[in-house]
């Protein structure tokens, strides 16, 4: 068989279900090989949308999908989404075409060094130079992408190599359990917890793996230790559990910091400091004892110097701690501050639940209505902007992987393509993307993809006519902001032109009924609401007063 056929057969053997992308001349052989494949090709309207779809698929399933582009501009268009997947720990395989090896050494049409360009934003980047190496390259690519911590890999296929005959066969995948920590190391961590007065847990991206979340919940049910999650750790514990302390990670001080400052031992669980740097909660590196539990050793940082590193499979590490507490019982911990933090946060969540006035809708009201409209297993996808901060603070989950927030690379433009992928993974669940108007319009062309696939998704757009997060941050730092305003389309005409159901909601009291109608509609729906971003500065001022009072 020719090389492109072998590449597809190897991807099939690995269980790859989807290729998202935009074809070009240099990957035509690969596209024709896909025609006879069990792998479904999803034609997208932009390569960045393809990468975001593959990223969302990877975050929801733990397995990679493929995003595809041709050489040159196809490869550069994919780059942002691939970088986002890599820093947000989503397994992803990027496949790009390339010009023939006979012209790569010289200035030639659309030729650029794609492999070198992708090295900073992938775990591994490799061109195919020998047809018979394809099975090894694919097996390694999938293994590297899935291996903790998951991320993106690149495979480049030159057009002349794609046509050559190959004599090898796919390699049968073999998957093994991850390494586990030594008993002595776990004993050291356990002794710190046994002698602690008020321990607390920071649950990061790694804690939402289902086995890890299950063991974490068992630990907290037994001990009562409170859990605050990073933006990407939402759902590691149930929001309704008494030990849920909700989210940490805002730039300003928040109530949850009180629980951290009252703690004498902090367990970081699957914690990525790219989300929330330790300088924000452990300046100097010795404010409290830190137990680092993760798949990898701790990153070196002057403010993050763990007393114990428990390195290995996260679920197994937690299981080992659970067994020790089961054997010895639980010490008399003091969780009064944690209980107070939870009570104060719950009060804030409910504060605007009954808003029904005219004019722009408060973010708190919007998030309350969204939470009421979605069931426990439904999926919310957030974009990047001021809306992300409100989702991070006010929206919480019952289960892992039910709120996808980009918070490592933080690229805009993800909710619409991500929602399409979420529908493919979970067609039986309600899928809601929340985007700012600036965020949504960055990949608006994927509205056509959603229509073509009859994707059962809803997008809620918060309209403020500008880049609200940037103005918020500029206002905080400089007491003024530059001109960040822009115009928007007629939203209802936009929805109709793409065959979407559309609604524009101007009253807070009408938001929940509009959301429920959109979520009940079979097919894509757009709901747009003017947002009252005056609340941004009010939140900053309120959190600033918390800092003064403490």
From TrEMBL:
Gene Ontology BP, a term: L-valine biosynthetic process
All copies of domain Thiamine pyrophosphate enzyme TPP-binding, residue ranges: 383-528
Taking every annotated instance into account, which residue ranges of this chain make up the domain Thiamine pyrophosphate enzyme N-terminal TPP-binding? 1-114
Q: Which GO terms describe its molecular function?
A: acetolactate synthase activity; flavin adenine dinucleotide binding; magnesium ion binding; thiamine pyrophosphate binding
Against InterPro entries, the record matches this protein to: DHS-like_NAD/FAD-binding_dom (IPR029035), THDP-binding (IPR029061), Thiamin_PyroP_enz_cen_dom (IPR012000), Thiamin_PyroP_enz_TPP-bd_dom (IPR012001), TPP_enz (IPR045229), TPP_enzyme_TPP-bd (IPR011766)
Q: Which residues form the signal peptide?
A: none
Q: Which UniProt keywords apply?
A: Thiamine pyrophosphate
Protein origin, superkingdom: Bacteria
Q: Does the keyword Transferase apply?
A: no
The transmembrane segments are: none
Its GO CC terms are: acetolactate synthase complex
Q: Which residues form the Thiamine pyrophosphate enzyme central domain?
A: 186-320
PANTHER family, per this entry? ACETOLACTATE SYNTHASE, THIAMINE PYROPHOSPHATE ENZYMES
Give the record's family classification: Belongs to the TPP enzyme family.
**What is this protein identified as?**
Acetolactate synthase large subunit
Q: Which organism is it from?
A: Abyssibacter profundi
